[in-house]
Amino acid sequence: MNENRNDLTGEVLAYEAIHGAGCAVVHLNPTPSGAGDKEYDEDEVEVFSGERGVLDNIVSIEAEKTPTASDSGPELWDPTNAEGSVNTDAAPKPVGAYPHARRVGDLLYLSGVGPRQPGTNAIPGGPIHDGEGKSLDYDIKAQTHAVIDNISRILEEAGSSIDNVLDVTSFLIDMDRDFKGYNEVWAETLGKVGPTRTTLAIRALPTPIAVEMKVIAKV
User: Fold this and answer.
1) Fewer CB within 10 Å, N or C, the chain?
2) What are the distances in angstroms from CA 65 to CA 58, 90, 111?
C-alpha cells in the first residue's frame, strides 16, 4: 500500500491475535524529513501490551444494534406489558409493539394471531412466498390449524380456553383459493364452539402467511 516507503512513523492503537497471526489498528504519519533512516526489516518489533479484545468489542456493539430479524418476515418484538396485558412464550412474538392479548373486565381481546410457531417462527403448511417474493405452494388447512392452536395457548395463559371464544374476525390473503380449506378447519374446531365470525379478503399480511384471526373471548 505504501510501496515500501520508510518515511512513516506511527502508533499501534489496538491489536488482536487471529488464528495464530494478528491484526493491528495503527495510525501512521510521515516523518518531518520526508524520509526515514531504516528499512522495515531493521526495525525492532514492538510487543503491544495495550487493551486486547478491542475488535471483538466493536463486533459485539454492532451486533447489539442489529434488529432481531425474522426468517419469515419483518423484525420481531417482545410483547408490551401495559395494564391488563396477557403474554406468553408459547405464542409467536409480535411484529410490532403490542401484547398478545389484553383483558378488560371479563373479556379478552386478542391481537391478530397467525400460524407462526413460537421460538422457531416456522410456518406450518409453508410460507406463501420466498424471501424474494416468489409465490410458493402452501397448505391453508395446516396454517389454519396452527392459528387456532396459537389462539388456544394465549387463552390458556389468560386462564380461559378456546371454548370461551365469542367473536372472530378472519383475514385471508386469497379468498378464492383458501376459503374452502379454511372453512373446513373452522367447522372442525371453532365451528363447534359457535362464535360469531366475519371473514375478510385482504391483499397481504406482514409475514408470509395466508390467514390471521382477531378474537374476542370471555375469561
Assistant:
1) N
2) 11, 26, 28
pTM: 0.66
Type of residue numbered 209:
I
Q: What is the pLDDT of residues 86-114, one digit of tens each?
A: 999 999 999 999 999 999 999 999 999 99
| Residue the block writes with cell 488482536 | 16
144-163 pLDDT tens trace: 999 999 999 999 999 999 99
* Per-position b or e across 168-190, b if 16+ CB within 10 A of its CB: bebbbbbeeebbebbbebbeebb
Strands 165-172 and 8-16: unpaired
100 φψ region: left (φ > 0), alpha (ψ -120 to 50), beta (else):
alpha
The answer to whether 87 and 97 are in contact (CB under 8 A) is: no
In a domain, 166, yes or no: yes
| DSSP-based three-state secondary structure for 51 | coil
Tell me if 73 is assigned to some domain. no
The answer to whether position 111 is within a domain reads: yes
Set of cell numbers at residue 213 = 384471526
Pairing between strand 196-201 and 165-172? parallel
Classify strands 211-218 and 165-172 as parallel, antiparallel or unpaired. Answer: antiparallel
Rounding to the nearest 10 degrees, give the CA dihedral for residues 35, 29, 17, 14: 150
- Domain membership of residue 117 as a residue range: 85-218
CB contact set of 94 (below 8 Å; sequence gap of 6+)? 76, 77, 78, 79, 100, 111
Mean pLDDT is lowest, of 7-16, 34-43, 107-116, for: 34-43
